[in-house]
Amino acid sequence: MERFANKNVFLTGAASGIGKATARRLANEGAKLIIADVNQKLLEETSKELKDSILETYTLDISNLSDVAKIFEEIKSKFKSLQALVNVAGILRFDHSRDVEPKDWQKILDVNLTGTFFMCRYALPLIIESNGSIVNVSSSAALGSHAWTAAYSASKGGISAFSKTLAVEYGVQGVNVNCVCPASIETNMSTQTPLPSNIDKRLLKKIMPVDGVNRTPEDIASAIVFLASEDAVHINGIDLRVDGGLLT
Ligand SMILES: NC(=O)c1ccc[n+]([C@@H]2O[C@H](COP(=O)([O-])OP(=O)(O)OC[C@H]3O[C@@H](n4cnc5c(N)ncnc54)[C@H](O)[C@@H]3O)[C@@H](O)[C@H]2O)c1
């Protein structure tokens, strides 16, 4: 399938996990990619692997407003058009809600929610021009109850709500904006984020896969790429749960 032939796609979080799997899938489907991530070393590996499909590679902290603005100025003058924006970059911490440090709360909101807003804000003029699409990676934590994720859940809930505003406001101009809400995917984030100490183990089932099996980043990439493609042209403003039925 070449659903992205002649299409430029900007993807964040491309250095690892779901973002890297999405980069591979988009490249396989013919996209020309602008990839970004804060992790320069791992991003370079993605860039090298997919070199025939890469237009540009940016080491970028999406919560840095002036860097985001500068990059979109450059994209506009260099590549002229952008057909899709995919925001995968994000961070997670587990804490007992009563112990969340305000600085950690702020950091998670800054990266996940405000960073996604900055990306959408500066991409929108180009996306509107091409009747393109935006896919934001939210989480099952935005929709259901997860323990120890107060800041993360708030940030992802914000992404889902913010995305619906964009969907309504720019849907009439031919743009679609949707969220993918994953759960239980084996990545650095899910395997390397420590749980808080002294947890009530009954709450673990709220974040565990229903069948005990973690799925792969590719299982999310397929949903992201579908929503970014013309196949999803009549889908706008949804939270697509890709969670193996966790919240069912
Ligand atoms: N793994 C899961 O089960 C799961 C579940 C729900 C949602 N998600 C979401 O999926 C997305 C991808 O996560 P993943 O599981 O692949 O984890 P991951 O840690 O492998 O990937 C996250 C990527 O985001 C990048 N990143 C972090 N902060 C950044 C910043 N400020 N600017 C730019 N890039 C930044 C990281 O360097 C990393 O490459 C995240 O938004 C996450 O919240 C994952």
Task: Describe the fold and architecture.
By secondary structure, this protein is α/β, with parallel strands linked by helices. It has one domain (8-242): NAD(P)-binding Rossmann-like Domain (Rossmann fold, 3-Layer(aba) Sandwich), CATH 3.40.50.720. It has helices at 17-28, 40-49, 65-79, 102-129, 150-171, 188-192, 217-228; strands at 8-12, 32-37, 54-59, 84-87, 133-137, 176-182, 239-242. It has a 7-stranded parallel β-sheet with strand order 3-2-1-4-5-6-7, sandwiched between helices. Helix 4 links the parallel strand 4 (84-87) and strand 5 (133-137). Helix 1 (17-28) crosses helix 7, helix 3 (65-79) packs parallel to helix 4 and helix 4 packs parallel to helix 5. It is globular. The two termini are 31 Å apart. 48% of the residues are buried. Residues 12-13, 15-19, 37-39, 60-63, 88-92, 111, 115, 137, 139, 182-185, 187-190, 217 line the site of nicotinamide-adenine-dinucleotide.
Task: Pick out its properties.
alpha/beta; Rossmann fold; seven-stranded parallel beta sheet; 15% strand; binds nicotinamide-adenine-dinucleotide; 7 strands
